[in-house]
Amino acid sequence: MSAISVKRIIFSTLAISFLLTGCVSKEKTTERMYQALENIVEAEKAFEEQQEPLVELEKQEKEIYNQIMALGMKQHDEIVKLSDEALSIIDKRREHLQKEIDSINASKAEFKNSEEIRNEIDNSEQRKKVTELLEIMSNRYKVHNKLAKEYSTALDNDKELYQMLKNESISYEKLEDHVTNLNTIYQKVYDANEEFNELTAQYNKKKLEFYEEAGLKLENE
Fold first, then answer.
1. pLDDT means per 10 residues in the chain (221 residues)?
2. CATH of the domain at 161
3. What pTM does this model have?
4. Among 131, 160, 149, which residue's Cα sits nearest to residue 192?
5. Which top-level group of life is the source organism from (predicted)?
6. Which end of the chain is more exposed for a tag (fewer CB within 10 A), N or C?
7. Residue 16 lies in a domain
8. Can you list the alpha helix ranges (DSSP code H) found in 72-171?
């Protein structure tokens, strides 16, 4: 019973051309860092692709839950049918979540390259900007890990709820307790998602600051 749609903020995919200013060695290091950062964006495209279908599936499940609540336990056959539909949706949500996790893991692999390049930057101000940028990203990965775990727990409890609803002899008190617990879990999902979105916004802003500091003239293609 998805009470909260957890829309993620994604990276701004920079469709840009750029010119580098400065000496040749500076150009090479800056260009490598630029490419490493944009590879992170590329790695998270699969993450981006999961957001719309996840939100849509959450809405579909919520509609089914509302239908079940409107029926009452006397129409048990219909409740079983709707619960099975909801359980199928939960499986689909879990598949999208796994694709999201896989995409973030691919992003982490690209992130390691940017950490190595950071150590080669001679300009102190540029290195400072990159260090701040990478710290934000590191925190973002940690928060996404927390978010994914909370979301997975929510899915487990969603599944348990519909299995309980299929049990004709289930008591109202048990259902009420489970829904209360589920709402608490989804609040944790919401809070982690808000933190993740904030860090993503900070990262996008800090990355542009680094590009400006590095002498990249960004132009929309």
1. 47 37 55 90 93 94 93 86 97 96 94 90 90 95 96 96 93 93 94 94 92 71 40
2. 1.20.120.570
3. 0.86
4. 149
5. Bacteria
6. C
7. no
8. 76-118, 124-165
